[in-house]
Amino acid sequence: MLKIVRKAATTAKKLHVQNRWLSFTASSACGIRGPCIIEKRGIDIIHDPWFNKDTAFPPTERDRLGLRGLLPPRILTFEQQYDRFMDAYRSLEKNTSNDSERVVSLAKWRMLNRLHDRNETLYYRVLIDNIKEFAPVIYTPTVGLVDMIVLTDGSRILGLGDLGVQGIAIPIGKLDMYVAAAGMNPQRILPVMLDVGTNNQVLLEDPLYLGLRQPRLEGEEYLSVVDEFMEAVHARWPKAIIQFEDFQMKWAFETLRRYRKKFCMFNDDIQGTAGVALAGLLGATRAQGRPVCDFAKQKIVIAGAGSAGIGVLNMAKQAFLRMVENCGMVDNNQFWLLDKDVWGLVTTDRKNIDPAAAPFARGHGQGEIEGLREGASLHEVVAKVNPHVLLGLSGVGGIFTEEVLKAMRKSDSSRPAIFAMSNPTIKAECTAANAFEYAGENTVFASGSPFENVNLGNGKVGHVNQANNMYLFPGIGLGALLSGARVITDGMLQAAAECLASYMTDEQVQSGMLYPSISSIRHITTEVGAAVLRAALAEELAQGHGDVGPKELMHMSKEDTVEYVASNMWFPGYSPLVQKKFF
Ligand SMILES: NC(=O)c1ccc[n+]([C@@H]2O[C@H](COP(=O)([O-])OP(=O)(O)OC[C@H]3O[C@@H](n4cnc5c(N)ncnc54)[C@H](O)[C@@H]3O)[C@@H](O)[C@H]2O)c1
Ligand SMILES: O=C(O)C[C@H](O)C(=O)O
Ligand SMILES: [Mg+2]
């Protein structure tokens, strides 16, 4: 993929070079006056766009290069090929004259790109001779027609660790969700895998591994590749939204810090997850029949100080502070964070504490009062704190053991909440059945990967919520795209989380349902997208999208915005097919 983007970024350079040699010799695909010595033969030459001449290979080259039988026997001149292409291009224009401008532009862009992929010499000739007409097709605005890019470097795929290039399945899956939930047009999405090596020893030793068998790039070398990618992709598709996905923690935070004010990007694991978790935590407060402001009194234990865990803590802390201010609550440190480096409770006594985790370390005084020391075990912490919420984003299956879950029975909450958010299923901190069995039937349960509802007997059902960032990222991407904002702000993300949090009725929440059914995800995404768009407008960041400018967006009511978002969502269906007429 990086190759494709680099190709785009170097197009200008190539054009310059081609221009030069065209003035020397218009017929050589190699560029420098004399003959071009090539090692390839036969089909390999035809498959190389730089050398391919299609039907223009002269008889001598056909004989010498083993091309006979691979091409139609009729030989065309460069000019004849040129005319044939332009004829085909004009008939495309004619056949699509009733279609929308976007459809026509994309069809033209594809036609030119197919030629680019097949025969670069003819492509650039056509381009140079018709630059005024083709520039809008191959450059802005048509090249702006990639809407959504999901990017990974494969370094932390779900809770499975470093999977190298095999991590590409994640961007593809996320983009499937963009199509299904956000109605992104599947022709306008791009999954990207940045292959910077792998530190997975099994892959490094596997001769069948498809990626680079070298240790991951580190430090400045790594950042310079990501910088180059971001610049190139922005030059090529300036309006596309870029979602960073499944990067290991150090790069997840560093890239977010580095790019969020410069590009329209967000990190799904840090920011998408945080919003979904916050919506669930607010729901868990309401499930106890308490007002949302009481969220600031909830005691929350989190296992896993990684990108997702810290992201959740940061967003929850912001919400706490808002409630402290708006509802006149007291600002206590309501978080207990556990991690594995020295496994257990993170306190200010911890050596080499990660700067991102430092604000959430329990202070000396606090630890003493609670009788909890640095590195206290999860069971110890739960037993002493009696938290309202136990949340796992550790990537380690089963750490909410029977003992830990039983300790949750003494929770200060009438509806203790257990969020086992790690993925995939085997990495969930506990199963749904174990949560209800050991922590009790009043438990409110959510997991990152789906579990079946649990039959509690006597006609009662333990409801399983799926606390997964899929409830938010499609709406964040769609709302950001339609707003035309250049960046994605905390305000836009907060609007997304609040929209999801208020989606459920009190009745639903009190029956243990914190999130809506996945089957209504398209509706939720419409609402979230509209909320993100409105937040961008409120912050005066919206520049509009397509024909709809910021002024029109400003004049839309809340309902209009939702309708506008819905009307921009693609929905699959066959189009009538008409046989092409040949003249
Ligand atoms: N449900 C969702 O929407 C969602 C979203 C993002 C991430 N996740 C999941 O969360 C998990 C973590 O993701 P991440 O991006 O934060 O990864 P990460 O690697 O950045 O963080 C994992 C953290 O857990 C810590 N850890 C390891 N073993 C532990 C243990 N026994 N107890 C406590 N902490 C331990 C690690 O030291 C690390 O700090 C993954 O399984 C991922 O799939 C779920
Ligand atoms: O991919 C998911 O299902 C959620 C999340 O982004 C994760 O990394 O686990
Ligand atoms: Mg992820």
UniProtKB/TrEMBL annotation:
Residues 270-537 form the Malic enzyme NAD-binding domain. Pfam families: malic, Malic_M. Its cofactor is Mn(2+); Mg(2+). Keywords: Metal-binding, Oxidoreductase. It comes from the Eukaryota. (S)-malate binds at R156, N423, N468. Residues 116-260 form the Malic enzyme N-terminal domain. One of its GO terms (cellular component) is mitochondrion. InterPro entries: Aminoacid_DH-like_N_sf, Malic_enzyme_CS, Malic_N_dom, Malic_N_dom_sf, Malic_NAD-bd, Malic_OxRdtase, NAD(P)-bd_dom_sf. The active site is at Y139, K174. GO terms for biological process: malate metabolic process. GO terms for molecular function: malate dehydrogenase (decarboxylating) (NAD+) activity; metal ion binding; NAD binding. Gene3D superfamilies: 1.20.1370.30, Malic enzyme, N-terminal domain, NAD(P)-binding Rossmann-like Domain. Divalent metal cations. Prefers magnesium or manganese. NCBIfam families: PRK13529.1. Belongs to the malic enzymes family. This is Malic enzyme. It comes from Coptis chinensis.
